[in-house]
Design goal:
Largest sheet of chain B: 5 strands, parallel
Helix content of chain A: 40-55%
Shape of chain A: globular
CATH architecture of chain B: 3-Layer(aba) Sandwich
Number of helices of chain B: 5
Largest sheet of chain A: 3 strands, antiparallel
CATH architecture of the largest domain in chain A: Orthogonal Bundle
Radius of gyration of chain A: 22 Å
Strand content of chain A: 5-15%
Distance between the termini of chain A: 32 Å
Low-confidence stretches of chain A: 418-425
CATH topology of the largest domain in chain A: Cytochrome-c3 Hydrogenase, chain B
Oligomer: heterodimer
Number of helices of chain A: 17
Largest interface: A-B, 47 and 42 residues
Number of strands of chain A: 8
Strand order of the largest sheet of chain A: 1-2-3
Strand content of chain B: 5-15%
Shape of chain B: globular
Order of helices and strands of chain A: EEEHHHHHEEHHHHHHHHEEEHHHH
CATH topology of chain B: Rossmann fold
Chain lengths: ~425, ~170
């Protein structure tokens, strides 16, 4: 006798109170149980790469910053690194330390934000208000240093724009003192609250195998037991001198990583402490000196026209995971020929879509919030052909990517026919 | 009018106190607290986090009963962020139609006001005025939470005028 199953397809989004951003999921439900998740992207497509063809290197910095309001420094920083690599531009050491400080301040603000959103999604609004009140301190610090609460514009190609002087240093030290008092309370509330443990433990488990297959990065990957952190594995800038090491869930909870929502949250709490330490170390070790290679922007534009020839890749650990920007330029042009960012949310989203299968539908919002999705970074590709939906198979995509690689770099030799077995997706 | 708060202070400036008093007065006049619904039409999250910051304890709009609700059918005020991408265009219109009258639309941020850095993109439909009628614009990239609260006050003042019968209600396009 065959078993009759009553499956229901339910749209989730795009404008949904549980989701911060427009994104759509089609859930296939068997009663309350999630059987399958289909991810529909593209509601945030603003054509950033299209716009970038019309902007020069300096203008793209502002565009990169506005890709995402939460990790605005990360995008700007990674893009800048890519251009610096392509142009062979040296960055003063003091500027590297200031970049570390701003990056870690941003990580604190992003992780506190996500912890609040996680608490809000299980209806624990007291914790939302607690974490967001604590977050205002780092926003004040960022405002005092950079002059704006969200888009800081601190980085420029070949250095940073603003220095951290004695007064700003005191403000940062004041903030660290404040957080050393506040964080134990927040940590206690998140790690030892039975309500939170009941909802977050064993929810949306992403096993290490699935995380490896889907390429999960950042707190999502580390929560599943992948020891990787772009700041640590890449030996990025001055991070090795400051004692960077990836935060794993066992460092925080003391148990083996299970890859559930609780582990991802624990990694974020561990990183809050790690960021405070990195800022303290960076403030101590910061040498004197200049902060920019090129003091004026008009000189920078002229120099970039001559210097950038070839391609550069910037890697950075954004609060959500590893971020990669690719820039290819040509001598004599003040615009990049190609600028391609690759965001951490894209692989994480498919990893969590895999991990949430078999869970209750009520856990779905928490599962999506646990990867800290940033759809405004992710939505970038539109395929429209004669107004018809066209499904490309993996072989087609591989062929297209090989064609694109040929187009931007004809020096690469190799067989263009796709080989090898397919990945599970 | 500019609203200033010291960079690292938590103290109330007279400007902010005046603003808070005005919200309380208007809520009493209207007879209920305004509930807001937030539409993200392809925004970069910058304005969205500032909207939530305006509701959480530092700025604490929730003490006036200004609450973020989950359905447009419960809302009095729509906060729209983002440059209205092609895909979200129909959804923004749909949400606007679902909101009961009298309703106020606040365009939060530089994107719905004029397109911001995405002004030349073929995939966006900024400004928001081309899509739905807008009552208040709050410029800034992103606007500070005080500016968003100020925008809510301006919207409430307009709502009070409509209720008094000084200006015609509805969207003015009839």
């Amino acid at each position: 006798m065959t078993k009759v199953e009553y499956w229901v397809k339910m749209p989730f989004g795009p404008i949904h109170p549980g989701l911060e951003e427009p994104e759509k999921f089609i859930l296939t439900l068997d009663g309350e149980r999630i059987v399958d998740v289909d991810v529909k992207l593209g509601y945030n497509l603003r054509g950033i790469q299209w716009i970038a063809f019309r902007r020069n290197y300096i203008q793209i910095m502002y565009l990169a910053e506005r890709m995402c309001g939460i990790c605005s420094f990360s995008h700007n920083h990674t893009y800048t690194r890519a251009v610096e690599e392509a142009g062979g531009i040296e960055v003063p050491e003091r500027a590297e330390y200031i970049r570390v400080i701003i990056g870690e301040l941003e990580r604190i603000h992003s992780h506190l934000l996500n912890l609040g959103v996680l608490a809000h999604d299980i209806g624990y609004d007291t914790l939302l208000h607690l974490t967001w009140l604590a977050r205002e301190k780092v926003m004040d610090t960022l405002e005092a240093i950079a002059g704006n609460r969200v888009n800081y514009s601190m980085v420029t190609i070949g250095g940073v724009r603003r220095d951290i002087d004695g007064k700003k240093r005191r403000i940062i030290l004041d903030m660290i003192k404040y957080y050393r008092e506040v964080f134990p309370g927040i940590e206690d509330a998140f790690l030892h609250d039975p309500t939170i443990e009941a909802r977050f433990r064993d929810t949306a488990i992403i096993s290490k195998r699935v995380a490896m297959e889907q390429g999960a990065v950042g707190p999502t990957g580390r929560g599943s037991g992948i020891r990787d952190d772009a700041r640590w594995s890449e030996r990025l800038g001055v991070y090795p001198d400051l004692g960077i090491k990836p935060v794993m869930p066992q460092d925080v909870t003391g148990e083996r990583p299970r890859g559930d929502v609780f582990d991802r949250m624990a990694v974020r709490i561990g990183e809050l402490w790690g960021s405070l330490e990195l800022i303290e170390n960076a403030l101590d070790a910061m040498p004197d000196g200049k902060i920019k290679t090129f003091p004026k922007d008009n000189i920078l534009v002229a120099k970039l026209k001559l210097l950038v020839d070839g391609e550069g890749i910037g890697r950075y650990e954004a609060p959500r995971g590893e971020l990669v920007h690719y820039v290819r330029g040509k001598k004599g042009s003040d615009k990049p020929l190609r600028w391609k960012p690759r965001e951490p949310t894209f692989p994480n989203l498919f990893a969590v879509a895999e991990g949430v299968k078999g869970d209750q539908v009520a856990d779905f919002v928490v599962a999506v919030a646990s990867i800290d999705p940033c759809l405004s970074c992710t939505d970038r590709v539109a395929v429209v052909q004669d107004g018809k939906k066209k499904i490309l198979t993996e072989k087609d995509l591989l062929r297209e990517s090989i064609r694109k690689t040929r187009e931007i770099n004809s020096n690469i030799k190799g067989d263009p026919t796709p080989v090898g077995s397919s990945c599970s997706r | 009018m500019s609203i200033k708060v010291p960079a690292n202070g938590g103290s109330n400036s007279p400007e902010r106190e005046r603003l808070e008093k005005r919200i309380a007065q208007l809520c009493r006049f209207i007879g209920r607290s305004p509930w807001v619904f937030h539409i993200n039409s392809g925004s970069c999250n910058g304005c969205d986090i500032e909207i939530i910051a305006a509701l959480t304890p530092r700025y604490d709009a929730e003490r006036f009963g200004v609450k973020l609700v989950g359905s447009p059918r419960h809302a009095d005020i729509l906060l729209v962020t983002g440059p209205v991408t092609n895909q979200s265009l129909e959804r923004v219109k749909l949400v606007y139609e679902q909101t009961p009258e009298p309703k106020m639309v606040i365009a939060v941020g530089a994107c719905p006001t004029g397109g911001s850095v995405f002004y030349e993109s073929p995939f966006t439909n900024a400004p928001l005025d081309n899509v739905i009628p807008v009552d208040v614009y709050v410029p800034g990239c992103p606007p500070r939470p005080e500016a968003i609260l100020h925008g809510v006050v301006l919207a409430l003042e307009k709502l009070a005028k409509i209720l008094k019968g000084e200006t015609p209600g509805g969207d003015g396009y009839e």
